[in-house]
């Protein structure tokens, strides 16, 4: 008997594909490339970090507003993959386009990065919602965690190739400038992302959906309004979302701004790239470990563990001074980064009505993305006011504390159908 089905493996492989974007564009190469472009243009370190934070806030606000609306429409038969395809194509195209923007135009880089991020995070709304179509509730924790684990493993390959090219260019061992080497990394990311998404397109299909009806957009807004009116029926689900809103804010901010943070502390690019590479390697087995431990101790208890680790990370970040300190910080993050994201996804997946998964994962997105507005803005404003990025990271502690307190009140719950005969399970 196979450990995982073809549908589960195809779904998990998209984590392998998209994680190249997460490490190279979100975390490592692009932030360094952008910071260098901004510095060359005369922008101060604290200002360029703040502008990156504001950019993240802008594109997350856009998706936060669109997520529930698009998700509700995507619950109709055949719509989920169409929306996924649109955002996927936007993300891949914009990522490739980064390679063709002049390296001295930091503003245009941020604009293109916005479209790439819209594509990546937009596609993830529908990718996450596909978890209810590819596996069963009792397997969700393990499948979700293994997806994150594969993502960390898979991302190390294009990342290793990219940093090898960049380091060789930096040491003038190959006839390329560092700028050109970084642009090659952007192209590698786009190709990797597109290539390994193919199995999902071939083997993953929308099994749970609502039958199509006239005026799907109008009726989607009506269903969305009905959900808001009947919100008390989903107490466990929305209480979890409120907890998620706070703790995932800190997680996302640490991930998206870690490289800029390290740069502000004076850590050189080579050290940052090596630290991030090792972090990916360490994060893979820990993400899978979280999935296994969730089966033994429950996902909720393991979420507590992940949040506590992040509280320690934020406190430690306040005292961060040396490259060794950054190494310790990165390894702490690596132990829980994938686990807390994977179990949040699967925990939520077990709470949602399956035939309305897109609508509710739209809410999952809006809570996560609105949180991602608050975190980067908090770090950006604090960095500019104090001139010290450490203070911004330390301030994230309060978000994790609020998140863990609310999570304690989330009751265990199973998903239920809310659409009666309109719900269809395709064999």
Core attributes:
427 residues; Growth Hormone, Chain: A; 17 helices; 78% helix; disordered C terminus
Number of helical runs?
Answer: 17
Which CATH architecture would you pick?
A: Up-down Bundle
Helix content: over 70%
Number of strands: 2
Q: pLDDT under 50 segments (min length 5)?
A: 415-427
Major β-sheet strand ordering = 1-2
**What percent strand?**
under 5%
Helix and strand succession? HHHHHHHHHEHHHHHHHHE
Rounded average pLDDT: 81
Give the number of domains: 1
Which radius of gyration do the C-alpha atoms yield?
21 Å
How would you characterize the largest beta sheet? 2 strands, antiparallel
Describe what this molecule looks like in 3D.
This protein has 427 residues and is mainly alpha-helical. The chain has one domain (6-203, 230-412): Growth Hormone, Chain: A (Up-down Bundle), CATH 1.20.1250. The chain has helices at residues 6-27, 29-40, 45-74, 79-97, 106-129, 131-134, 140-170, 178-195, 198-203, 216-229, 235-264, 269-297, 299-318, 323-351, 357-386, 389-394, 397-407; strands at residues 208-210, 423-425. It has a two-stranded antiparallel sheet. Mean pLDDT is 81; it is low at 415-427. It is a multi-pass membrane protein. GO terms for molecular function: transmembrane transporter activity. Its main location: membrane.
Structural topology:
Elements lengths: L5 H22 L1 H12 L4 H30 L4 H19 L8 H24 L1 H4 L5 H31 L7 H18 L2 H6 L4 E3 L5 H14 L5 H30 L4 H29 L1 H20 L4 H29 L5 H30 L2 H6 L2 H11 L15 E3 L2
Antiparallel strand pairs: 1-2
């Amino acid at each position: 008997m196979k450990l995982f089905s073809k549908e589960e493996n195809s779904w998990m492989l998209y984590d392998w594909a998209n994680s190249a974007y997460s490490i190279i564009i979100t975390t490592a190469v692009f932030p360094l490339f952008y910071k260098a472009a901004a510095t060359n243009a005369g922008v101060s370190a604290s200002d360029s970090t703040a502008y990156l934070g504001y950019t993240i806030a802008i594109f997350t606000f856009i998706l936060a507003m669109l997520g529930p609306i698009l998700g509700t429409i995507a619950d109709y038969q055949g719509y989920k993959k169409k929306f996924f395809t649109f955002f996927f194509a936007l993300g891949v195209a914009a990522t490739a386009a980064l390679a063709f923007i002049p390296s001295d135009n930091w503003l245009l880089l941020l604009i293109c990065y916005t479209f790439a991020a819209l594509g990546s995070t937009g596609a993830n709304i529908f990718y996450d919602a596909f978890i209810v179509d590819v596996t069963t509730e009792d397997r969700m924790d393990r499948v979700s965690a293994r997806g994150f684990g594969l993502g960390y493993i898979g991302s190390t390959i294009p990342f290793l190739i990219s940093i090898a090219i960049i380091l060789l260019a930096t040491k003038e061992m190959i006839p390329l400038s560092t700028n050109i080497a970084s642009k090659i990394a952007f192209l590698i990311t786009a190709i990797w992302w597109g290539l390994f998404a193919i199995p999902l397109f071939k083997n993953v299909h929308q099994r749970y959906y609502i039958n199509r009806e006239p005026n799907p957009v109008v009726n989607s807004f009506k269903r969305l309004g009905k959900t808001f009116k009947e919100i008390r029926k989903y107490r466990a689900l929305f209480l979890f979302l409120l907890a998620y809103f706070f703790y995932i804010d800190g997680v996302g901010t640490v991930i998206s701004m870690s490289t800029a943070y390290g740069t502000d502390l004076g850590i050189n690019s080579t050290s940052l790239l090596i630290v991030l590479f090792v972090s990916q390697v360490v994060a893979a087995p820990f993400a899978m470990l979280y999935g296994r431990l969730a089966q033994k101790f429950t996902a909720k208890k393991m979420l507590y563990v992940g949040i506590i680790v992040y509280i320690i990370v934020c406190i430690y970040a306040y005292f961060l001074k040396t490259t060794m300190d950054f190494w310790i910080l990165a390894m702490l993050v690596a132990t829980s980064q994938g686990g807390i994201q994977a179990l949040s996804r699967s925990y939520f997946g077990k709470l949602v009505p399956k035939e309305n998964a897109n609508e509710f994962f739209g809410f999952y997105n809006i809570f996560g993305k609105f949180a991602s507005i608050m975190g980067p803005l908090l770090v950006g404003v604090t960095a500019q006011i104090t001139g010290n990025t450490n203070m911004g990271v330390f301030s994230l502690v309060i978000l994790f504390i609020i998140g863990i307190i609310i999570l304690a009140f989330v009751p265990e719950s199973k998903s239920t159908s809310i659409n009666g005969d309109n719900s269809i399970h395709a064999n």
